[in-house]
Amino acid sequence: MSSKSVTREQETLIRENMALVGHMVREMLFKVPPHVHRDDLASAGYAALVTAAQAYDGERGVPFGRFAAVRVRGALLDELRAMDWASRSVRARARRAEVARQELTARLGRTPTPTELAELLGVAVAELSNVDDDVQRAAVLSLHGFAAGTAEDMVAETSLNPEEMLLHRERIGYLHDAVAVLPERLRFVVEASFLQERPLSDVAAELGVTESRVSQLRTEALALLKDGLGTHMEQRDNGAAKDSVVARRRAVYAAQIAARSTLSTRLGATDANGLRTAA
User: Fold this and answer.
1) CATH 3.60.15.10 fits 88-267, yes or no
2) Start-end ranges of CATH 1.20.140.160 in the chain?
3) Against a cut of 0.70, is the pTM above it?
4) Which ranges in the chain are annotated with CATH 1.10.1740.10?
5) Which pLDDT tens digit goes with each residue over 258-275?
6) Proportion of the chain above pLDDT 90, given as a percent
7) Higher pLDDT, 238 or 260
8) 8-83: CATH number
9) What are 85-100's pLDDT values in tens digits?
10) Over the stretch 196-226, which tens digit does the pLDDT of each residue have?
11) Which long-range contacts (CB under 8 A, 24 or more apart) does 79-86 make?
C-alpha cells in the first residue's frame, strides 16, 4: 500500500471503483488453480487501486475506471507470478506431455488424440487434461503479460514514455495479427474461450466436439501463439527439430504473421495512447 496520503477526491475514486477490483479478482480466479486464495489477489488489487487513484490525471482524457483496470490487472498478475503457482511437478509433467505430443505428431503425421497421448505417457486421460489446463492457465498469464491485457480489452498505460508506448502498441498489434492468422478452428477457440470467456461446454457444443477436444485445440492454439509472438518480437528460435512436422507448421504460421503484419498495421490496432481502435 502506498504511504502517500489520499485526498478526499482520490478517496472518492477508490470507494466508487472498489467493485472493479472485486470483478477482476473473480474473473482471474476462474483462470487459476483452486489453491490460489481470493484474499491474496484482492489485497494486491485494492493496493493497486489506491496507487492508481494517487497517480491519476484526469486531464489526459482517460476514464479512471479504464486507467485503474490496467494497474489492477498488472498487480494481480504480479501477485500470481510471485506465488509461482505452477509447481515443479506440474511443469515437469507439462514438459513430458509436450515432448510426447511432438513425438506422436511426427510419427502419425497429425495431432494425436488425448487417448493416444495419454497411452504413450502411461497416464489417465483425465490426468492429462488436468496438466493441459494448468499449462493453458500459464499461457494465458504469459499472453496477458505480453500484451498488457487481452486483445479485446486494451487500456492505456499512461506512465510509458514515447519509446515504451511505441513498443507497447507494436506488441498489441502483433498479438492481434497472431490471433487473426490462426487456423480457423483454433482462432474460434481462442476468441470464444479467452476473449468472450464462454464456458468450455458452449464452445464444444458449437463446434460439435467434446470438451476434451476443445481443451486440446486450446493447447495447440496457445502453443502456436506463444511461438509466433516469440519469433517476431523476441527473435527467438522455437527449438523444434527443423525437419519435424511441428517445426514446419510453426514456420508456416510465423510466415503468415509476417505476411499480414507491417509496422503500420500493428500500430493501427491502437491509438496514440495505446487504446484499442474501432474495427
Assistant:
1) no
2) 88-267
3) no
4) 8-83
5) 887 777 777 777 776 666
6) 14
7) 260
8) 1.10.1740.10
9) 555 566 677 778 878 8
10) 767 778 889 999 998 878 888 888 888 888 7
11) 79/40, 79/41, 79/44, 80/28, 80/32, 80/36, 80/41, 80/141, 81/141, 83/36, 83/40, 85/32, 85/33, 85/35, 85/36, 86/134, 86/137, 86/138
